[in-house]
Amino acid sequence: MNRNLLIILVAVLAVVSLVVVGCAPEAAPPPVEEEEAPTPEEEGEEAPPAAPEAKVYKWIGCQHSAPGTILTLSAQSWAAEIAEMSDGRLVIDMLPAGAVVPAYREVQEGINEGLLDATVGNVSNLTTHMGDVAYLFSNTPGRIDPLEYMAWHNLGGGRELIDELVSEALPNTVYLGPFALKGAEEFGYFRKPVTKLSDFKGLKYRSAGIWGRIASEKLKAAVVSVPGVEVYEAIDKGIIDGFELSTATSNYAMGFYEIKGIINENPGVQSSYAIESIFANRDKWEELPDDLKSIVLHAMEAQQMRTYAATTVEDIQAREKMREFGTEMILLPEETIEEIISLSEEFFEETGQKNAQFAKVWESMDSFMSWYREGRNAFTP
């Protein structure tokens, strides 16, 4: 190979080498190590605290109605609604009547003694602690209906009067307000027609409250106290001649309409409205945060009209079933109804003359009701 050819070959190989090197990919730079962020402890700062778990309040509740009744079901519904609205922060175990203490007035005593945290009860059962004035807050004879009562309670000073009386009688008890509204009870069941006030004279008659007092003192009936669970046997065996006990729904459930020869009478002017209320132990109530207190009260207020609507409809249905069964049903004459109303108001006035607390409450109710009816009727076609 001549020398010139060798020089040319070497030059070509050099050029090719440069081209190959220029087309090759650039080498990746060495990885840069990232510095770890300093922890709060390394910077001298404390980590933010974890959010505390919400405190759960657990109450023991009780009511005085029999299992399966509308009041018992409403009480259970109230407790369930509170648990849901509070996202489980307040749980009330609503026990049946008699589970912790005997029913009726002992339910409120159980609250006052710290055996219970909440109850559904009746202010009128507190006569042992409050005297006759307690009778004015439920099952009162006369012309007051549940909505009139609620207007007086909420806007006419009624709540303040009850707060004052309950606090004096049971210092460890807080009255939260009406829970369930019910309309008039049935006038009663009798072995023979009772359509005039004179028919009560000498009648062996089961009753209670103000009307029981009136029937005994004014009408000269032989009034006896018979527990509700024993009334069926007493009337069936002739131990009593008649009785008044509860609303049509409850009376129907007890089977009174089936008794041979029994007479059902209405309207229940001797007990024109019934109000069940919620009570709470004062320490447990004051322990609750404000938002849970609001939930308890709003759930209670929601039950008021639900129960009133349900009991009204069920009372109508119960009377229809009794009529279909063939039970004799009598409506009181209008003059007898007016006589009972007049006699009741006379009793209120006489009792108020002897009892300052009774007079204070009755005057408040009577003046408000008179104003309320006059104004309502002026705008009612």
Structure in words:
The protein is an alpha/beta fold and 381 residues long. It has a domain at 57-185 and 271-372: D-Maltodextrin-Binding Protein, domain 2 (3-Layer(aba) Sandwich), CATH 3.40.190. It is 47% helix and 14% strand. The protein has helices spanning 3-23, 70-85, 105-112, 127-130, 146-155, 158-169, 209-217, 231-236, 248-253, 282-287, 290-325, 334-354, 356-378; strands at residues 57-63, 90-95, 118-121, 173-182, 188-190, 204-206, 222-224, 242-243, 263-266, 274-281, 328-331. A 6-stranded mixed β-sheet has the order 7-6-8-5-9-11, with helices on one face. A 5-stranded mixed β-sheet has the order 2-1-3-10-4, sandwiched between helices. The protein starts with a helix and ends with a helix.
Q: Which helices and strands, and how do they pair?
A:
Layout: H1 3-23, E1 57-63, H2 70-85, E2 90-95, H3 105-112, E3 118-121, H4 127-130, H5 146-155, H6 158-169, E4 173-182, E5 188-190, E6 204-206, H7 209-217, E7 222-224, H8 231-236, E8 242-243, H9 248-253, E9 263-266, E10 274-281, H10 282-287, H11 290-325, E11 328-331, H12 334-354, H13 356-378
Parallel strand pairs: 1-2, 1-3, 6-7, 6-8, 9-11
Antiparallel strand pairs: 3-10, 4-10, 5-8, 5-9
Helix pairs in contact: 2-11, 12-13
